[in-house]
């Protein structure tokens, strides 16, 4: 039984390599079809525009892309929602780029060539972490509202 779309995690997949998109899309849709609504893009500028228009729950992006790199997409996603889980993919990157990714709040990274089992594990972990954050925030907001006495 499928869950209503409003309860689904939205995942944005960004890589300038169409074959990588096809590979990851197949893995994620097969494993998480009833839990994740997946959008995939090969144009990082289009991805940035989409993130600015609508926050994403999970962002999986290549770290090194022409024009806009994954770090810029991470910054944009985190500005829209601090809960966004960001997973980077990289085949060749610098220590500085990976350090920047960690400091800016990246959730994890995948080294290319990617392994199916690792992709499934990290996407599942990111979704669980997202749900824990949401639950904690909802509980904190609910608790905070209970503590505030009405002003007379």
Structure, described:
The model is unreliable at 1-5 (pLDDT under 50). Helix 1 (18-32) crosses helix 5 (116-147) and helix 2 packs parallel to helix 3. Helix 4 (95-103) links the parallel strand 4 and strand 5 (108-111). It is built from five helices and five strands; from the N terminus they run E-H-E-H-E-H-E-H-E-H. Strands 2-1-3-4-5 form a five-stranded parallel β-sheet. With 152 residues, the chain is of the alpha/beta class. It has helices spanning 18-32, 44-53, 70-80, 95-103, 116-147, and strands at residues 9-14, 36-41, 58-62, 85-90, 108-111.
Pick out its properties:
single chain, disordered N terminus, 5-stranded parallel beta sheet, 51% helix, 152 residues, globular, 18% strand
- Strand tally is 5
Task: Give the ordered list of helices and strands.
Answer: EHEHEHEHEH
Percentage of β-strand residues: 15-25%
Q: How would you characterize the largest beta sheet?
A: 5 strands, parallel
Class from helix and strand fractions: alpha/beta
Radius of gyration: 17 Å
How many helices in DSSP terms? 5
Average pLDDT metric = 89
Principal-axis shape: globular
Helix content: 40-55%
Major sheet: order of its strands? 2-1-3-4-5
Poorly predicted runs are 1-5
Assembly context of the chains: single chain
| CA-CA gap between termini | 49 Å
